[in-house]
């Protein structure tokens, strides 16, 4: 049954903004999809258009909620706007793991710098935090379970922030170590320039996702009706804008050029 939007939002959400943002994310979906195909990038980079499409659907549901707010539409919106950006972290984890894997290293490597550790350790942590956040939103649909839902989502967010910080530290270590090299892209003069470009993407987007995570923690700590939860422009500033800037970075310095699949030699 439809209710007044303030019942779930604690404020009356603005019109036009979610429609425009949904359209922007659809453009980003198409752009990253074309980049992935044309650059012969690894197929795991389809994470980018899939994430952008999920964001577009989230803002489409936010638009629906302005006119017709139900528990179902609000929950769908919450899930689609909370969870998909976590996949951007998976992109960074896989990218750093490939840098470690493809570099010609001399001598033993400490375990935290090993490709499998970087990829799978952070992948598992991200999936775990993803599941906790999704479970928390699902629990919130149950009557009288708001506190349990809040703490479940917060647990997922805190875990994510801890591992973001650890990942950032390891990424900086790899960036400073000259043994780790990156394949040149079409805009790079040499491997040094390629490495700088790629690590600007990894580190820059990780910082933006970390800021978004801090905002989400503040939102859930305060809970329904709090200053953070009830201030819509904060959501657009610290969530929407950060995710959009992440996509701008991914598109401007596309990761796929550094890990291109080989062309087939068949004629």
Explained architecture:
The chain is built from 9 helices and no strands. The protein has a single domain, classed as Up-down Bundle (Rhopdopsin 7-helix transmembrane proteins), CATH 1.20.1070. It is 69% helix and 0% strand. The protein has 267 residues and is mainly alpha-helical. It has helices spanning 6-9, 17-38, 47-67, 71-82, 86-102, 115-139, 146-176, 191-222, 232-252. The radius of gyration is 20 Å and the shape is globular. Helix 3 runs antiparallel to helix 4 and helix 5 (86-102) runs antiparallel to helix 8 (191-222). Its main location: membrane.
Number of helices: 9
What is the gyration radius calculated from CA atoms? 20 Å
- Helix percentage: 55-70%
The share of residues in extended strands comes to under 5%
- What's the architecture, going by CATH? Up-down Bundle
**What is the total tally of β strands?**
0
Write the H/E string, N to C: HHHHHHHHH
Given as residue ranges, the uncertain stretches (5+ residues, pLDDT < 50) are none
**Mind describing the biggest β-sheet?**
none
What is the global morphology?
Answer: globular
Count of the domains: 1
Q: Please report the first level of CATH classification, the CATH class.
A: Mainly Alpha
Give the termini separation. 61 Å
- Overall pLDDT metric: 91
């Amino acid at each position: 049954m439809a209710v007044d939007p303030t019942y779930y939002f604690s404020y009356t959400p603005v019109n036009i903004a979610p429609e425009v943002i949904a359209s922007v994310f659809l453009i980003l979906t198409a752009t990253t999809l074309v980049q992935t195909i044309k650059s012969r990038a690894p197929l795991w980079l389809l994470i980018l258009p899939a994430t952008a499409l999920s964001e577009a659907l989230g803002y489409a549901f936010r638009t629906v909620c302005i006119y017709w707010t139900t528990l179902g539409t609000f929950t769908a919106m919450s899930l689609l706007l909370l969870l998909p950006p976590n996949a951007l972290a998976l992109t960074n984890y896989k990218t750093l793991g490939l840098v470690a894997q493809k570099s010609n290293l001399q001598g033993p490597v400490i375990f935290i710098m090993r490709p499998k550790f970087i990829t799978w350790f952070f992948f598992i942590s991200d999936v775990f935090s993803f599941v906790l956040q999704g479970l928390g939103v699902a629990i919130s649909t149950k009557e009288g379970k708001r506190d349990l839902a809040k703490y479940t989502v917060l647990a997922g967010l805190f875990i994510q922030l801890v591992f973001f910080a650890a990942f950032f530290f390891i990424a900086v270590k790899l960036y400073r170590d000259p043994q780790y090299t990156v394949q040149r892209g079409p805009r790079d003069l040499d491997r040094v320039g390629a490495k700088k470009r790629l690590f600007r993407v990894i580190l820059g987007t990780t910082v933006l996702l970390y800021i978004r995570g801090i905002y989400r923690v503040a939102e859930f700590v305060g809970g329904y009706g709090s200053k953070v939860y009830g201030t819509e422009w904060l959501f657009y500033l610290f969530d929407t804008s950060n995710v959009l800037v992440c996509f701008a970075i991914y598109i401007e310095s596309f990761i796929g050029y550094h890990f291109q699949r080989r062309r087939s030699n068949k004629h």
